[in-house]
Amino acid sequence: MQTAGFVDARLPIHSDMDLVWVRQHVRQTAAQLGFGLVEQTKLVTAASELARNTLVHGGGGEVEATVLKNGHAPGLRLAFIDEGPGIADLERALSDGYTSGDGLGMGLGGARRLVHEFAVDSSPGNGTTVTVTSWTVRPPRHREEH
To answer: Average per-residue pLDDT in the chain?
Structure first.
């Protein structure tokens, strides 16, 4: 059972240098929690994509890092929060190849594939919060009861 976590850090995302700090913090925290190198790399890559989206498309914001516990397995939740224009067509934004700028279109969809849990809360004019969670050990999926 997942227990409530504690906020490890709130980091600003207002410049390219802030992107570096976010990546470093995520890598260090994941390593301290016992993430293997591959899982660290996946989480840092997702964080890098989402932090860049927060800066470029959201006009800046912050990331809130929360350390979690699921039984004996630690996890890390990252919430990327901005007060930008929001995402007008979320389904399209999550599709592979979609880009609203000069990027490769791998941001949201790519980040979603790199983490265990992924959620987006966004509406036009109200900003965006993208929340991702990864665990040192992937939690079992809950069976659907029929």
So the answer is: 86
Amino acid making up residue 88: A
pLDDT at 135 over 60: yes
pLDDT value at 103 more than 60: no
The reported pLDDT for the residue numbered 110 is 87
10-16, long-range: CB within 8 Å, 24+ apart, which pairs? 10/62, 10/63, 10/64, 10/65, 11/62, 11/63, 11/65, 12/60, 12/61, 12/62, 13/51, 13/54, 13/55, 13/60, 13/61, 13/62, 13/63, 13/80, 13/82, 14/55, 14/60, 15/55, 16/55
Three-class secondary structure of residue 118 per DSSP: strand
Phi/psi of residue 7, nearest 5 degrees: -70, 115
Question: Which helix (H) or strand (E) element contains residue 104?
Answer: none
Q: Which has the closest alpha carbon to 80: 29, 135, 138, 9?
A: 9
- When mean pLDDT is compared across 21-25, 78-82, 101-105, the lowest value belongs to 101-105
Rounded to the nearest 5 degrees, what angle is found at the Cα of 68, between the Cα atoms of 108 and 80? 30
- Tokens at residue 27, please? 């890598």
